[in-house]
Amino acid sequence: MTEVNPKPKSKTPMLMVVVFVLPVVLAYFALQFDWFNKASTNRGELLSPTLDLTPVSSDLEAKWRLLYVMPQNCSASCENALYSINQIWVALGKESDRVEPLVLLTEDSERPENTEMNNHPHIQVLTTSRQNVNKVFKDGATDGIFIVDTLGNIILKYSLKQQQEEAIQQSRDILADLRKVLKLSRIG
After folding, report:
1. Which residues touch 117 (CB under 8 Å, ≥6 apart)?
2. What per-residue confidence (pLDDT) applies to 169?
3. By C-alpha distance, which of 73, 68, 152, 63 is closest to 104?
4. Residue 176 has what pLDDT?
5. Which domains does the chain have, with CATH numbers?
6. N or C: which end of the chain has fewer CB within 10 A?
7. What torsion do the CA atoms of 111, 46, 56, 96 make, to the nearest 10 degrees?
8. Which positions, given as ranges, span the membrane (predicted)?
9. Distance between CA 180 and CA 66 in Å, rounded?
């Protein structure tokens, strides 16, 4: 009598399931149950929805902008902001022609000649009414440095810093974000 050897079971189908199906199932559950931190790489506050700058500047050319709204009294944080946007523009080097540092002045803003702006001739000044600024910011806070895209959308906000060391560190963050958007954008 001869013994019939049963056919050895193949492990290939099980291995295929483990290699191809298991990662898909694990990814699905990771997304459904938030098993990971959804991180962003920008260092500023992403404005959602974006703010539209066109009520103030509908005729400006398509450039990226570092925007600052001049307050009534230019304190230390204001002086730091003016210094920062100028230094960021200088640090961009060959990319600086794609970016414009812009300060919005209203009728109740501190006059530029009384501020740090005298030392920074590259900062552009745009005079507008407080009503237009309120339309843009929807009566929200204008205290910060903003990045504006080439279409006039305000996309990122950075809070103002009182201490110069903190302002310098924040300038590095703004520069990193600005370099990133300039690298990804072919416009402006």
Report:
1. 82, 103, 123, 125
2. 95
3. 68
4. 94
5. 45-184 (3.40.30.10)
6. N
7. 70
8. 12-31
9. 14
* 3-state per-residue secondary structure call for the chain: CCCCCCCCCCCHHHHHHHHHHHHHHHHHHHHHCCCCCCCCCCCCEEEEEEEECHHHHCCCCCCEEEEEECCCCCCHHHHHHHHHHHHHHHHCHHHHHHEEEEEEECCCCCCHHHCHHHHCCCCEEEECCHHHHHHHHCCCCCCCEEEECCCCEEEEEECCCCCHHHHHHHHHHHHHHHHHHHHHCCCC
Question: What residues of the chain score a pLDDT lower than 70?
Answer: 1-8, 37-40, 188
Contacts of 163 (CB under 8 A, 6+ apart): 80
Cα distance between residue 6 and residue 42, in whole Å: 62
pLDDT on residue 78: 92
Q: Residue with structure tokens 């103030």? A: 56
pTM (2 decimals)? Answer: 0.78
Q: Are 159 and 52 in contact (CB under 8 A)?
A: no
Structure tokens at 5: 């050897």
